[in-house]
C-alpha cells in the first residue's frame, strides 16, 4: 500500500508531505535524505537536454545558455499574451514546465533515485493545495490546468483544498496533538506567500475545520506579495539591470538565501529601525556588497502594505456584518513571516505584545509546513475540512401567464436557483432539487444554466449544447411537472 500525500505548490517554494511509517506527519526531502523540505518552484533546461529542479536549477539560473523557469504557479493562469512578459514562456509553456517539476519530484525513477516514489513508495493519492481564489473562482484557468497536469501524469488527485483551510487544519491538529490543547473557536488564517494574500476565517473544533469567510488578492497573476516586494527591492537598487537579465536572477536568488539564513537577525534589525530612527541607515538585507537599509525596504513594501490593508478592511467589514469574531490569528506562508507583514496585520487588528489572539510560539513552529501538512491530514482522513461554495447556480425557466384581456398565455422568464451560494460544499454532495416543480412545454426543451458569481445578483445565462427529450401529455395546455436538481 502506497502513500496519500499533501502538496503545497508555492510560487517560490513547494513542499510534499506524508504520514510516515511511525504514523507521524513528515516532509519529503529533495533531492535525497540530506536534501531540503522546501523545494524551490523552478526548473532549468540546459542545451544538452538536462533538466534541473529546485536548488539545482537556482544554481545555474544566471547562465545565459540555460532556460530558467520560475514563478510557475502564477504564470499558469495567464493568457498567451500576458505570458509574454516572462521571457522564458517564449520557449517553454508553463504547463510543460510544471509537469516536469512534478514528474522529477514525485515519480521519475532515475539513477539518482531522487523522486518520492524512488525513495518512498507508490503515491496512491494527492491532496493539492491552491490559493483560496483558485479553489473558489467559478472558472479559474489555473485550477483546471493544474488538475489536468496532475491527472496527465497518471497521478490520482483526491481533491484540491484551499491553502488557508489546509493551514487551519494543521493548526488545530498540532495544538491538539503536541500542545495538550484542544482549540475551539474562530481562527483567522493570514496566508501571504510569493503571489497571493488570503485571509480566511475558520471555525475550529476537535477534528474539524469549517470555513466561514474569505477575502484576498492575487486573483490572476502575481499579486502584491513576496515576489513583488523582492522584485521591486532589487530593481529599485540595481536600476541598470532588467528583470530578464541573468544578473537579476543571481541577485534574486542570493537575496532569498540571505532572507532564509538571516531571518532572526533581519527581524531584529527591522524592529530596531522601527523604533529608533538613528538606526535606519544601517544595512538590513545584503546581496554581496549591495546593502538595503530600512528606507529601501520600507519603500519597496509600501504597495504591499496598502494591499494588505485594503483586503483586511473589506474582510473585517464583511465579518462584522455576519457577526463573526476572531479568537486567534495564524500567520502562514513564507512572506507572512516577514516582520513588516506581521506588523501591518497586527496593527490593523490592534494586537499588542502578549496578545492571546496570537500564540507566537505555535505560529513560528508550524507556519512553514502548515499548508502541506494540512493537505496530508486531509488526504489521510485525519481531519475533516468543510469549505463553502460561493456561487448560486440554477436553470432558466419559463412559466405561462394568462392574459385576462385576451385569454391567451404568454411565456414569462424566471431564474430557478438550485445550488445557493455561501453554503457548505458537503450539502451538495447529494442532489438538491429546486424548491418548486418545473413545467415543461416542449418535447425537446433547450436547457439554460445560469451562474450568479459570488451570489452578487448578476446572473449569467448559458445554453447547454444538449437538449432533453421529454414525453408530454396530449392536452390543450401542455405542461408536465418535473423535479430539477443538480449536485
What does this protein structure show overall?
Helix 8 (163-178) crosses helix 15. The chain is globular. It has 487 residues and is of the alpha+beta class. The strands form eight sheets. Strands 1, 2, 3, 4, 8 and 9 form a six-stranded mixed beta sheet that branches. A five-stranded mixed beta sheet has the order 15-10-11-12-16, sandwiched between helices. It starts with a strand and ends with a strand. The protein is built from 15 helices and 26 strands.
Mean pLDDT: 85
- Secondary structure: number of strands: 26
Question: Regarding quaternary structure, how should these chains be classified?
Answer: single chain
Q: Please count the helical segments.
A: 15
Distance between the termini: 32 Å
- Poorly predicted sequence stretches spanning 5 or more consecutive residues: none
Percentage of β-strand residues? 25-35%
Overall, the morphology is globular
Q: Could you describe the largest sheet, including whether it forms a barrel?
A: 6 strands, mixed
Helical fraction: 25-40%
The secondary-structure class comes to: alpha+beta
- Rg, rounded, reads 26 Å
Amino acid at each position: 500500500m502506497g502513500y496519500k500525500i499533501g502538496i503545497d505548490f508555492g510560487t517560490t517554494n513547494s513542499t510534499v508531505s506524508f504520514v510516515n511509517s511511525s504514523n507521524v506527519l513528515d516532509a519529503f526531502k529533495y533531492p535525497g535524505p540530506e536534501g531540503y523540505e522546501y523545494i524551490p518552484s523552478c526548473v532549468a533546461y540546459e542545451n544538452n537536454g538536462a533538466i534541473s529542479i529546485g536548488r539545482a536549477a537556482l544554481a545555474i539560473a544566471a547562465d545565459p545558455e540555460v532556460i530558467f523557469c520560475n514563478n510557475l504557479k502564477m504564470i499558469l493562469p495567464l493568457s498567451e499574451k500576458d505570458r509574454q512578459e516572462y521571457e522564458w514562456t517564449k520557449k517553454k509553456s508553463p504547463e510543460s514546465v510544471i509537469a516536469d517539476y512534478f514528474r522529477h519530484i514525485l515519480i521519475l525513477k532515475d539513477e539518482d533515485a531522487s523522486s518520492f516514489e524512488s525513495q518512498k513508495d507508490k503515491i496512491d493519492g494527492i491532496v493539492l493545495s491552491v490559493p483560496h481564489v483558485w479553489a473558489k473562482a467559478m472558472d479559474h484557468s489555473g485550477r483546471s490546468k493544474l488538475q489536468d497536469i496532475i491527472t496527465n501524469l497518471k497521478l490520482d488527485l483526491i481533491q484540491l483544498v484551499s491553502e488557508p483551510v489546509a493551514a487551519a487544519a494543521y493548526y488545530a491538529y498540532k495544538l491538539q496533538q503536541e500542545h495538550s490543547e484542544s482549540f475551539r473557536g474562530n481562527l483567522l488564517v493570514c496566508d501571504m506567500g510569493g503571489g497571493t494574500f488570503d485571509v480566511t476565517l475558520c471555525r475550529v473544533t476537535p477534528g474539524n475545520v469549517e470555513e466561514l469567510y474569505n477575502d484576498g488578492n492575487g486573483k490572476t497573476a502575481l499579486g502584491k506579495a513576496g515576489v513583488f516586494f523582492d522584485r521591486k527591492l532589487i530593481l529599485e537598487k540595481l536600476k541598470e539591470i532588467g528583470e530578464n537579465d541573468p544578473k537579476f536572477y543571481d541577485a534574486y536568488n542570493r537575496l532569498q538565501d540571505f532572507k532564509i539564513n538571516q531571518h532572526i537577525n533581519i527581524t531584529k534589525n527591522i524592529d530596531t529601525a522601527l523604533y529608533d530612527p538613528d538606526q535606519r541607515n544601517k544595512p538590513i538585507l545584503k546581496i554581496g556588497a549591495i546593502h538595503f537599509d530600512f528606507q529601501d525596504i520600507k519603500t519597496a513594501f509600501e504597495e504591499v502594505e496598502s494591499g494588505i490593508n485594503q483586503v483586511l478592511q473589506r474582510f473585517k467589514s464583511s465579518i462584522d456584518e455576519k457577526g463573526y469574531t476572531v479568537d486567534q490569528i495564524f500567520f502562514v506562508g513564507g512572506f507572512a513571516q516577514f516582520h513588516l507583514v506581521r506588523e501591518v496585520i497586527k496593527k490593523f487588528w490592534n494586537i499588542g505584545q502578549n496578545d492571546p489572539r496570537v500564540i507566537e510560539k505555535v505560529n513560528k513552529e508550524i507556519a512553514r509546513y502548515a499548508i502541506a501538512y494540512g493537505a496530508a491530514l486531509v488526504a489521510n482522513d485525519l481531519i475533516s475540512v468543510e469549505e463553502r461554495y460561493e456561487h448560486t447556480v440554477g436553470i432558466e425557466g419559463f412559466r405561462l401567464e394568462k392574459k385576462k384581456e385576451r385569454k391567451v398565455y404568454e411565456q414569462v422568464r424566471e431564474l430557478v436557483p438550485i445550488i445557493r451560494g455561501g453554503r457548505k460544499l458537503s450539502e451538495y454532495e447529494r442532489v438538491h432539487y429546486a424548491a418548486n416543480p418545473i413545467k415543461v412545454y416542449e418535447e425537446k426543451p433547450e436547457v439554460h444554466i445560469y451562474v450568479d458569481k459570488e451570489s452578487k445578483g448578476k446572473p449569467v445565462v448559458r445554453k447547454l449544447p444538449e437538449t432533453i427529450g421529454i414525453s408530454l401529455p396530449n392536452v390543450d395546455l401542455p405542461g408536465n411537472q418535473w423535479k430539477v436538481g443538480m449536485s
